[in-house]
Amino acid sequence: MARPLEDFLAAAVRDKGSSANTVEAYRRDLQRYLQTLARQGLASPEQSSADHVARLLRQLHDAGLTPSTLARNLTSIRQFHNFLLLHGLAQHNPTESLEPPRVERRLPDFMTVEEIEQLMAGPDLDEPLGQRDRAILELLYASGLRVSELIALPCAGLELNAGLVRVQDRKGHERLVPLGRQALLQLDRYLSQVRPRLERDYSGEALFLNAQGRALSRMGIWKILQAAAARAGLEKKISPHTLRHSFATHLLERGANLRDVQELLGHADIATTQIYARIDTKYLKEVHKTYHPRG
Fold it and tell me: If you classify domain 2-86 with CATH, what class do you get?
């Protein structure tokens, strides 16, 4: 059963541009699935039925896995069998009749404007790395970038004269996001005063560098955020994604169009934006009162 799995994983990268994290999740889910089939005496995934898949999902549920994890497992198995069908390695998909577990979509955490101001005051601007950290925080909040997009951003991605950042996601799609005055100020200071001091022969084009002159990692960004929050006295648990949520939430609360926010975030589906950005009830009531004919 190992060969079809490896072929599926290779196709996920080659044809769909799946990230390393997505491929690793597929691998874990499907190895467990195929091992379960083998324990039940099946010689190949082609012999699997809806009952076999449902039995695995029940076992995972009984083991305490969350509905979202169960739903992800079912999605992995379904896509695997679709791959087998497409390549003539199977005659049916045993997941066709199975419904995914109902997943409660939790509103994301976000920060208030006051908390954002506190956070921005965290880095020590008397230190070069503090100036770098402030530029990172300002860019995350000003643009709503994913942390993966931030660490991959080259110097050429900034168009400070135009007040824009040019972002490319993992699938190669590009979008332009405007930047505000504070972000432009801090980024200009970082590029002119700090990055040249951090740069080494091996630094490449990465915009943000660590003290050794290498591109900052995802963990490096997380540590910078935690240090700034601690210095600012913020007790709320925050991550780079919290700033992305806050970016979207604050735009929507102040009247931005949902479609425009979708474009800024780089979402393919507007339903994702609706979940991502928390719109408070007070704002919705005000919109209804202002624009509905009988409001």
Answer: mainly alpha
